[in-house]
Write a sequence for this structure.
């Protein structure tokens, strides 16, 4: 799998008020700063965990961190897809939609090794204009280690008004 | 819901080599130190997130952290239950079994407020001697905010030999 650096990520253009997520908010200085962009018609998030992110098995990654990656990759992917459906792209000045997670399902297929970049690749499915599903495969060293399915809903306007 | 301090938690007696999990390892100084114990025939994990653990919605908790809580609560609950099935209890000097997560399903029912303790309450189901399921309800301020279902398998001996 070729190395990929995402030039444009949907999280780069979330409104400031909604850019504080511990997983993917660019303004949360303590967070993971996950970034999700297009690669053809797939969505991609790449993340290299820190050594502290060990799991129950020595030398392998914490499952909760993998779930976190799949969660934020899901909301970023849905935002990318709806943004594009609305006729917009990152960089055209438009504000992207924000999603919240309804359900998060993760299947751990193999222990995920530490000290390598993790790559989540997503396929986005619209199941309703306000309800989207993201199918994710997560690779470490080109090996499929986890699979995820996330259902997300467009963030209600009541949340958007809150600050 | 009454305040509860867990005197005995299964994570307190995991073998040192398997006590480094970012979520629940007592030896991981950067981790969450989740602790899971019995409350009657239910299992309980209580955790108060830090202010940095914000989600995409201002004032609410990151879903990936909730997934992490439900994951470690699941493996702790399964370990408690199999330990008891084997005739052992925390404090009798016996070494508890360790589990790894096979699948993690989380349903986010309501946004989870920040700055309050989260309480996960689990019901453990044996579906096979080496495969257990934990049904979890997660409360914040006595309000059910998330529901989880985790399938766990006894950690293979090949992992146990690894160091």
């Amino acid at each position: 799998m070729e190395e990929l650096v995402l030039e444009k990520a949907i999280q780069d253009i979330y409104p400031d008020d909604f850019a504080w997520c511990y997983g993917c908010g660019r303004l949360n200085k303590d967070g993971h700063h996950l970034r999700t962009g297009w690669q053809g018609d797939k969505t991609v998030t790449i993340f290299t965990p820190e050594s502290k992110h060990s799991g129950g098995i020595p030398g392998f990654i914490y499952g909760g961190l993998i779930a976190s990656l799949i969660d934020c990759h899901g909301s970023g992917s849905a935002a990318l897809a709806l943004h594009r459906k609305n006729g917009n792209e990152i960089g055209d000045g438009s504000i992207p939609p924000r999603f919240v997670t309804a359900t998060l399902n993760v299947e751990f297929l193999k222990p995920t090794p530490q000290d390598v970049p993790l790559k989540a690749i997503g396929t986005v499915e619209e199941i309703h204009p306000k309800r989207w599903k993201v199918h994710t495969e997560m690779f470490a060293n080109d090996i499929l280690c986890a699979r995820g399915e996330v259902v997300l809903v467009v963030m209600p306007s009541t949340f958007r008004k809150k600050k």
Summary: Residues 63-85 of chain B form the longest helix (23 residues). The mean pLDDT of chain B is 94.
